[in-house]
Amino acid sequence: MDVMSPELMWIGTRCYRINQVSEQSYLQQQPDENKPYVEEDLYEEDDREADYEIQICEGGKFQTSFHVPSVFFAMIIGSKGTTRRRLETETKTQIVVPRQGTEGDITVKGASRKTVTACRQRIELIVLGARSRQQFTHFLSIPLSSNEIRTNYVKFREKILTELPVGFGMDESLFQNADKLHMTLFTMSLMDNEDRSQAALLLQECRETVIDPILANYGSIEIRIRGLEYMNDDPHAVDVLYAKVESEALQQIADELMQRFVSSGLVQKKYDRVKLHVTLINSLFRDGGSGAMAGGGGEEEPRSNARVTFDATTILREFGHYDFGAQKVSDIHLSQRYSTACDGYYEATGQIKL
């Protein structure tokens, strides 16, 4: 770990540093898990009592109940209940988790609001860390449906496949399906119906609280797709090639949307700004080998997580400033990964019109 650039974890508007410790000392503290711990927040001014619905029960005790997907219950309980006991001891609270195989809210009870708040924060950190290790299931997307962009994308694909010298590792299956061509804002792991309902509702709320005020300044949002960039450090061995997106208004909207979803606990903040991009070629789409796609390229469900890179040097040299065109943004989708709707695009768990 780079001590000057430690891994960070965000919950709401608050940032935590994830500390790495030696295996021996860590196992002495937490024998049930072999994971890095997250430092405890010790600043009283940062407490989130006002953010939580905390009730007063009989006997003057306090409690809060909140949804956690059942897939994460085991992380909160820990091996033989050690994690739950440690949380209860350190925060002087009682944690009630639904029985295995059942759904329901987690309840935290304690003698004060502060202890209940502290325990709930610790649980949220565990859940957020566990959620971030899951493969993403959904993503906020903007469909690229204009005739100009789709036509230019098909021309771009055909030029590469027909004009590129043999031996650069290119294959038609590497390209995104034209019907699913989209801009990704950010991804998330939604583990149950409650997660999906919360995300869809939050997107609807953002229409009024985030998007409308920005649209008031710009009127409408037009984007231009122009130029290429790649992931990895070596253009001779590329995993993902994507097109750059130009739009100041959309950048503002994307950053605000991400912050709202981070505050909800559904997304872990990794970057200060959303990187607007359109995936064009992805090594995971490749047919006929490791990373082959079931049913063809373009975000179908992969058979393997292995990648076989491709050489993008000629593509970048010949098409580095390629102009795919422009379109107005008319809607934002909460898209389900590995799905196909009747129109060929992804199934939408939620959607807003602009």
Written account of the structure:
The protein is an alpha+beta fold and 354 residues long. 31% of the residues lie in helices and 23% in strands. β4 (55-56) and β5 form a beta hairpin. α3 packs antiparallel against α4. The longest helix has 26 residues, at 193-218. The relative contact order is 0.14.
Category from helices, strands and their pairing:
alpha+beta
What value does the average pLDDT take?
84
Radius of gyration, in Å, reads 23 Å
Task: Write out the strand line-up for the largest beta sheet, numbering strands in chain order.
Answer: 4-5-7-6
Major sheet summary line: 4 strands, antiparallel
Helical segment tally? Answer: 8
Low-confidence parts lasting 5 or more residues at pLDDT below 50? 20-46, 288-298
The counted number of beta strands is: 15
Helix content: 25-40%
Distance between the termini: 43 Å
Q: SSE string, helix = H, strand = E?
A: EEHEEEHHEEHEHEHEEHEHEEE
Shape: elongated
Strand content: 15-25%
Reconstruct the topology from this structure.
Layout: E1 8-11, E2 14-19, H1 23-29, E3 37-38, E4 55-56, E5 62-67, H2 73-77, H3 82-91, E6 93-96, E7 105-110, H4 113-132, E8 138-143, H5 147-163, E9 182-188, H6 193-218, E10 222-230, E11 240-246, H7 248-264, E12 277-282, H8 313-319, E13 323-328, E14 331-336, E15 348-353
Antiparallel strand pairs: 1-2, 2-3, 4-5, 5-7, 6-7, 8-9, 8-14, 10-11, 10-13, 11-12, 14-15
Task: Give a short synopsis of this structure.
This protein has 354 residues and is of the alpha+beta class. The protein is 31% helix and 23% strand.
